[in-house]
Amino acid sequence: MPDLAILDGFIGMEGEGPEDGTPVQLHATAASVNPVSLDAVMAKIMGFEPLDIGYLHHLDQWGVGVARLGEISVIGQPLEEMTPKFKPHSTYRDQLNWK
Prior knowledge:
This protein has a two-stranded antiparallel sheet with strand order 1-2. The two termini are 25 Å apart. It is an alpha+beta fold. The chain has one domain (5-98). The longest helix is centred in the middle third of the chain and has 11 residues, at 35-45. β1 and β2 (20-32) form a beta hairpin. It contains three helices and two strands; from the N terminus they run ββααα.
């Protein structure tokens, strides 16, 4: 695991990424000493439930990182104020079949 993860979220992508997605102006950056927590927070900002995302769920369960938002301390703008609700990929529902 890296000692520090930094995410550039100034422009995100929704829908059919990574090749045919639509750019979204998010204007956010984030950093964490726990990359799993960083991905979980950014997933929530995008409008997704982190534990619905297979790799976040499993890494959390295996103790590799924390993806449960209630256990992650966020410094800065509250998550509730940063939820643009990205459009999911057209196969998003199929991607949830891991459950």
